[in-house]
Amino acid sequence: MPTSQTRPNAKNDFMSDADVLEAAGDLVDAFLKTIREQALGSDILDTDCLPNSKTRIENGFRLAIVTEPREHVRRRLVAAGRVLAQFQADVGSRISLRPAADGGGHGLFGALSSRRLEQLLASMEMDQIRLSAMFEHADEVARRRFGVSVPPGFRDDGTYTWHGHARPH
Question: What is the number of other CB atoms lying within 10 angstroms of the CB of residue 99?
Answer without folding.
Answer: 9
